[in-house]
């Protein structure tokens, strides 16, 4: 799978310089709220990489090489998670550079929460793209975004009471979000693999 | 051992069916897959390479069913698809790094010497390659991991005659090893005639002929005569004919022609064209 990851890395470096620069910039800016931006932006990277694959029809070529279909699917998840991890690390370092102290537990928790949200976003997006392709998948992204915005609006509608409940819940069960993300990720991988295995190229 | 064995292979699309194909390619041999555009050459190659799943039938590649443990087998296969599908941004040098982490037997030295031989720039981005250069890069990759079997879909189309000749030479070199085999599709029949031991004709998803090239050439001949003479020949002798202003030219079974007729050597192209022509007329 190393070859596949390396290929994605090359594409990222060569074709998404601006995105990389933005991510670096916002990660290193001294405002923690930018973390949200960084980690959400990062979660669309695997999809963008798939768009490039689709355009060059790389998948056809990859399938003639010693890769199984599952490996090809998995490589996109691995790349996404590695990238989210790197971005989180960058935010952590940026914070240290600016404040001179390491993040405290609550800040680290927040960082973990945002990383989980990014991984969850990747988990929601990838099966859709594997099924419908990037072009048709776009409509579904918009729907997913609208859904989340509506959810957010709903949560914050009654003066943050629901949000407080949610915070309390995550305080009581700190492993809930990571665990939920892990389950979502596992389900997402299984779905993507079963979609990709049936595909004709 | 057989390099490729295809049994009762069928694949249906909305507007095209690859119909019950059977063929065997022994190791040490080259098989040419000849057919018009849309005859099913690319479909056959995609099925063998595992890009597409058949509706029925089985495919064995280097003795292994291509539905099971095919990853291992793919280490030993070099595939050149109808087009080179490398990512636009990457260079040949980066392709080398990717393949080094892809094929267990990747031979860097071989790859760079092919780049030089085929005059491919190592640092230029793939999107700036000409069509010929793209195909050449594909061929270089297929040849640089000690493959035992090459599966080539129109590898020489879009290349100029000089480069085509160079590449045919590379294939000739490759096939000197008796453990090696090549399946090559093309509509440049003259290329195939030089290279191949076996010839398979595809026409509208059906395999018309699959035979040793020498046998095909031995069995067939071109007969030029008057139309009346042709009509007097026993049935089954004439495999296809073309009526011209000055006489008739026909593809005939050499053995079955009575003595006294002057026969000319038939080329693979003749045999292909007449076979397709008679297949078309047979249907009409």
Explain what you see.
The complex is a heterodimer of chains A (201) and B (284). Chain A is mainly alpha-helical. Chain A is globular and about 55 Å long. Chain A contains 9 helices and no strands. Chain A has one domain (2-197). The two termini of chain A are 20 Å apart. Chain B is α/β, with parallel strands linked by helices. Chain B folds into 2 domains: 2-204, P-loop containing nucleotide triphosphate hydrolases (Rossmann fold, 3-Layer(aba) Sandwich), CATH 3.40.50; 216-283, no CATH class. Helix content of chain B is 34%, strand content 30%. Chain B has helices at residues 41-49, 70-74, 92-100, 108-117, 131-143, 161-175, 189-195, 213-219, 227-232, 268-283; strands at residues 2-12, 17-26, 30-35, 56-61, 64-65, 77-80, 149-153, 181-186, 198-203, 206-212, 220-225, 238-243, 248-253, 263-265. In chain B, the strands form 3 sheets. Chain B has a 6-stranded mixed sheet, with helices on both faces. In chain B, strands 2-1-4-5 form a 4-stranded antiparallel sheet, with helices on one face. In chain B, strand 4 and strand 5 form a beta hairpin. The radius of gyration of chain B is 21 Å and the shape is elongated. The interface between A and B is medium-sized, with 27 and 33 residues.
């Amino acid at each position: 799978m190393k070859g596949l990851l390396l290929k994605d890395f090359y594409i990222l470096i060569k074709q998404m310089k601006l995105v990389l620069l933005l991510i670096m910039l916002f990660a290193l800016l001294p405002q923690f709220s930018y973390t949200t931006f960084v980690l959400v932006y990062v979660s669309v990277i695997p999809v963008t990489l798939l768009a490039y694959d689709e355009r060059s029809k790389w998948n056809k070529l990859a399938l003639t090489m010693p890769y199984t279909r599952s490996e090809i699917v998995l490589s996109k998840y691995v790349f996404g998670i590695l990238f989210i991890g790197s971005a989180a690390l960058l935010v952590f370092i940026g914070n240290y550079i600016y404040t001179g102290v390491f993040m405290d537990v609550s800040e680290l928790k927040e960082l973990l929460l945002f990383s989980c949200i990014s991984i969850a976003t990747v988990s929601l997006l990838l099966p859709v793209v594997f099924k419908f392709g990037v072009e048709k998948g776009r409509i579904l992204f918009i729907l997913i975004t609208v859904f989340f915005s509506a959810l957010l609006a709903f949560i914050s509608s009654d003066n943050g009471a629901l949000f407080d409940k949610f915070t309390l819940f995550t305080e009581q069960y700190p492993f809930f979000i990571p665990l939920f993300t892990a389950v979502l990720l596992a389900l997402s991988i299984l779905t993507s693999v079963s979609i990709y295995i049936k595909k004709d190229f | 051992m057989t390099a490729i064995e295809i049994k009762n292979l069928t694949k249906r699309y909305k507007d095209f069916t690859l119909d019950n194909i059977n063929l065997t390619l022994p190791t040490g041999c080259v098989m040419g897959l000849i057919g018009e555009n849309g005859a099913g050459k690319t479909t056959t190659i995609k099925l063998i390479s595992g890009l597409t799943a058949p509706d029925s039938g089985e495919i064995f590649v280097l003795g292994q069913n291509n539905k099971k443990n095919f990853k291992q087998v793919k280490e030993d296969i070099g595939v050149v698809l109808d087009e080179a599908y490398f990512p636009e941004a990457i260079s040949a040098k980066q392709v080398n790094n990717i393949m080094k982490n892809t094929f267990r037997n990747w031979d860097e030295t071989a790859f760079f010497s092919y780049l030089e031989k085929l005059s491919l720039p190592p640092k230029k981005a793939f999107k700036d390659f000409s069509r010929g250069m793209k195909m050449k890069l594909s061929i270089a990759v297929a040849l640089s991991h000690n493959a035992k079997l090459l599966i080539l879909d129109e590898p020489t189309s879009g290349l100029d005659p000089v480069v085509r000749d160079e590449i045919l030479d590379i294939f000739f070199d490759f096939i000197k090893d008796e453990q090696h085999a090549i399946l090559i599709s093309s509509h440049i029949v003259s290329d195939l005639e030089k290279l191949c031991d076996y010839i398979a004709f595809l026409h509208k998803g059906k395999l018309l002929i699959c035979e040793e090239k020498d046998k095909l050439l031995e069995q067939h001949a071109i007969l030029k005569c008057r139309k009346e003479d042709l009509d007097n020949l026993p049935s089954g002798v004439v495999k296809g004919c073309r009526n011209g202003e000055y006489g008739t030219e026909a593809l005939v079974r050499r053995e079955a022609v009575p003595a006294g007729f002057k026969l000319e050597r038939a080329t693979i192209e003749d045999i292909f064209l007449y076979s397709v022509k008679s297949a078309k007329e047979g249907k009409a």
